[in-house]
Amino acid sequence: MLNCSFGRPVAYARLNGSEEYLGLIGDVYFYPDRGGCIVSVRMNGLPSGSTECGKCRFFAFHIHEGGACTGEGFQDAGMHYDPGSCSHPNHAGDLPPLLGCNGRAFMAVLTERFTPWDVIGKTVIVHEGVDDFTSQPAGNAGKRIACGVISPM
To answer: Residue 129 pLDDT more than 70?
Structure first.
């Protein structure tokens, strides 16, 4: 049986799309859990997939080290959050991809790579493509299409 302390979140980020994706919005909540963190994300306005295999597609989802969603392509969000100087995909900020279906996505993930307090002041980024979990330094995930600064609740 899963024994999580899924109480109140202690940190939050409101995601907004880039100039190219103005209708993209989302909410990310950070809950403390036994020295780690439960990250919950809900997105609307994601680009839809359009293949013979359906309208769902994956989007890379990361915590970045910077504290601002400014600059061209959210460049001020910096690189992946990586206090341990690890190789990708072992950065603390490397998270599973979002599965967007018909423009919407929801995911909750447990990580012990950081606590909510560790990431306050950092940023959350959604990329246009999927993380390949191989390429250095950041997974070849494409453009940054949404960004939000993580703030205390």
So the answer is: yes
Which residues lie below 8 Å from residue 49, measured CB to CB, with a gap of 6+?
Answer: 55, 56, 57, 100, 101
Residues annotated catalytic, as ranges: 62, 64, 80, 88, 91, 94, 127, 144
Q: What is the pTM of this model?
A: 0.91
Which residue did the predictor score with more confidence, 30 or 56?
30
Angstrom distance (rounded) from CA 91 to CA 111? 12
Contacts of 19 (CB under 8 A, 6+ apart): none
**Distance (Å, rounded) from C-alpha 119 to C-alpha 29?**
11
The encoded tokens of residue 2 equal 């899963």
Tokens of residue 101, six digits: 């279906």
